[in-house]
Design brief:
Chain lengths: ~110, ~120
């Protein structure tokens, strides 16, 4: 079945540091890939997505590129802020639109 | 826009009782709603998908008689955990989408503790 594996946290960074969260997936066919973010006390929000190989999703300074050859969708941000502290979830969906999530990575950014 | 609320945000109930969790789309009509369960430090696991006016479709391994889902209107879905046991303690999250296959908007979740 489909599965998503993302790097375990927690991740603690200083402001303006570079952030990478690794995500790899297993799926048949050509899934769509997503990153969701959950800020404290709030529901998950879609951060970015990519629907086909080599697509790059970007939003709020975050980027992720759909790499079919490595079945990966790593999340990156060049300079994090305290407000980026959250839990980040990698996810995929196939033609039935159901989402399969990774375990989530908690990121804490310190001033 | 696209706000989804859940009520209650947390609930404690005694073993053997039933508890109902509501999921509402506040500013849009939701064709489809989803219910997830999240264990500590684990991913969200899809429990069921519900379409307004239809019976819910449950994922493999989810007991439909234990987790009753009702999607009676385009803005409300309810999850009732019947005869709750301590192993049902978890974080339950709903999401809603306007269109089949459209973006899912997530509620903030409900923490259920069964004593």
């Amino acid at each position: 079945g489909d599965s998503v594996t993302q790097m375990e946290g927690p991740v603690t960074l200083s402001e303006e540091a570079f952030l990478t969260i690794n995500c790899t997936y297993t799926a048949t066919g050509y899934p769509s890939l997503f990153w969701y973010v959950q800020y404290p006390g709030e529901g998950l929000q879609l951060l970015l997505k990519a629907t086909k190989a080599d697509d790059k999703g970007s939003n709020k300074g975050f980027e992720a590129t759909y790499r079919k050859e490595t079945t990966s969708f790593h999340l990156e941000k060049g300079s994090v802020q305290v407000s980026d502290s959250a839990v980040y979830f990698c996810a995929l969906s196939r033609s039935d639109y159901k989402l399969s999530f990774g375990a989530g990575t908690t990121v804490t950014v310190r001033a | 826009g696209a706000v989804v609320s859940q009520h209650p945000s947390w609930v404690i109930c005694k073993s053997g009782t039933s508890v109902k969790i509501e999921c509402r789309s506040l500013d849009f009509q939701a064709t489809t709603m989803f219910w997830y369960r999240q264990f500590p430090k684990q991913s969200l696991m899809l429990m069921a998908t519900s379409n307004e006016g239809s019976k819910a479709t449950y994922e493999q391994g989810v007991e439909k008689d234990k987790f009753l889902i009702n999607h009676a209107s385009l803005t409300l879905s309810t999850l009732t955990v019947t005869s709750a046991h301590p192993e049902d303690s978890s974080f339950y999250i709903c999401s809603a989408s306007m269109l089949a296959g459209g973006e899912q908007y997530f509620g903030p979740g409900t923490r259920l503790t069964v004593t």
